Amino acid sequence: QELSSNAISHMPAKTDVMALEADLDKLRANLEASNDSRPKAVLLLTGSMNPVHRMHTNVFEIAKRALERDHGFNVVAGFLSPSHGDYVEYKLGNATIPSPHRIRMCELALEESSWITCGHWEVSMPSFKDFPAVTRALSSQIAQRFPGQDIQVLFLSGADHCYRCRLDLGTPYGVCCVGRGEFTEKLRARIAKMPSPPTTFYLVDEAVDDVSSTVIRERALRGESLAGLLHPAVEAYYLQNVVGAKS
Fold first, then answer.
1. Contact 169, 142 (CB under 8 A)
2. Do residues 68 and 74 touch, judged by C-beta distance below 8 A?
3. 91, 102, 202, 243 - which has most CB atoms within 10 Å?
4. Residue 57 belongs to what H/E stretch?
5. pTM of the prediction?
6. Is 192 exposed, middle or buried (0-12, 13-18, 19+ CB in 10 A)?
7. What is the CA 80 to chain-centroid distance, rounded?
8. Cα(191)–Cα(139) distance, rounded to whole angstroms?
């Protein structure tokens, strides 16, 4: 029996405990191999990933370099967490890519990374969880699995999202904000007016390529090249299983 696209979009790719535990494999391996005494940090990026593209993965590398160079962290892992199907469908409607496909493309994009992994917790929940809840859940899971390691989870975000959500004004968790056009300067101006700057907000002064999932979807439907926008394995999967399924 075939499932409707609406039913498929709500099916998580992985839900069992062992699969969710496997999300921590790269973090576990890096902790075992490290003798670095600097404070440990883990990066978390959430979003629709509809589809995942090179900017999503490049921003991790930019943030890791800056945090280790300028703020004295040892970044031991990164988690790319696709949003729940309910949220993506609310936001994008018929343009929503079913969750199993979004998950699989994230896995393909990160296959060669030694430190970034696809997180399955958010998409496997019964309903949508916003990024603060996802950040708390990851922090709790890491604290339980690696007691005594004192690993700080930093929510990774673009400057536009940080500005609109006022993340520079203080959060219960750390935030790593990567520059995105005019919003970087807006954040600097707002921080400059504060009596004391936030101690767990890290503004990375390096812009990321402005790649849009919307543009990628539109180009794909027109049959235009996606070269350089997607990882090769993601591009092949996307064209065959998502674009091809609609044609």
1. no
2. yes
3. 102
4. helix 54-70
5. 0.90
6. exposed
7. 3
8. 26
